[in-house]
Amino acid sequence: MSTTVFNNNSKTLGLLHVSKAQTDVINGPDYKQYIKILYLPAGYKIRVDFACYETQQPTLFFISPNQYLELEKAGEESGYFIFYNRDFYCIQIHDQEVACDGLLFNNIRNMPKVEASEEEIAFLGGIFKEMIQEFQLKDSSLEEMVRTYLKQLLIRATRSWKRQHLDNAVTEQQSDLEFFRKFTRLVEEHYKSKHTVADYADFLCMAPKTITHKFNRLRLPQPNEVIKNRIILEAKRLLVHTSLTAKEIAYDLGYNDPAYFSRLFQTKTGESPSGFRANFLG
Fold first, then answer.
1. The HTH araC/xylS-type domain covers which part of the protein (predicted)?
2. Are residues 28 and 133 in the same domain?
């Protein structure tokens, strides 16, 4: 592993093979802090937060540090696992370069995958091969070369994600696509303190009805649902992965009335917070 990990001061990027032998390592705590990209051939089963995915063809998965990843089943063919930190490459700072925040990562559909076409399989295979060769060379330009390959992967995957998960009319209208990304990024940044469409309308300098009309035109869920879904997703994470009480979680998510939060959770999930925790962990 030491030959496929770049670590210089606070900047880290690593590339590992994925197979049955690496399942426990990938599921362990060592990579929780990193941004992760998995390239998995057919036959793999992976859980991201509360959704399970089974690969029918080579597929890329994009996992943020705040998401929970579990590789439940490995296929016969090995895949690849990239992990890196924001000091190595921050998609927010370099948004103009790759424009993937709000699409590959932190998207309102919580859909972290891109299925690879035959053409993309060949391209991705070349990218991983070149990255491995760079690690083996140990040249002084390793950091910048590997970062260049990472950016190519992100740009290519972003194009594919838009084709696979957005209406064609959205991808053809750059202004609509940028609105989609901006709203998504705002919700990700402020969902713990801003709970209404009006709050985000203030950020965007437009009327709440204008946001709703844009979402209707983009054939997206209602903006209020997007906000509430993000809040409930975080509540589920905290219920399953921490020992916080429902009341503490309500306060953490910006609700001063825990009873109101519990009713919201019940409405969105069909279970009380305590019931969800017991059923998931049971």
1. 181-279
2. yes
Same domain, 15 and 101: yes
End-to-end Cα distance, the chain: 36
Concatenated DSSP letters of the chain: -GGGEEEETTEEEEEEEESGGGHHHHHSGGGTTSEEEEEE-TT-EEEETTEEEE-SS-EEEEE-TTS-EEEEE--SS-EEEEEE-TTT--TTTTHHHH--BTTTBS-TT---EEE--HHHHHHHHHHHHHHHHHHHHT-TTHHHHHHHHHHHHHHHHHHHHHHHHS-HHHHH-HHHHHHHHHHHHHHHHHTTT--SHHHHHHHHTS-HHHHHHHHHHTT---HHHHHHHHHHHHHHHHHHHS---HHHHHHHTT-S-HHHHHHHHHHHHSS-HHHHHHHHH-
- CATH number of the structural domain spanning residue 41: 2.60.120.280
Domains identified in the chain, total number: 2
Tell me: do 187 and 153 sit in the same domain.
no
Domain of residue 81: give its range: 4-165
Q: What is the CATH number of the domain that holds 187?
A: 1.10.10.60
- pLDDT tens, 26-44? 999 999 999 999 999 999 9
Same domain, yes or no, for 42 and 8? Answer: yes
Predicted TM-score of the model (pTM): 0.88
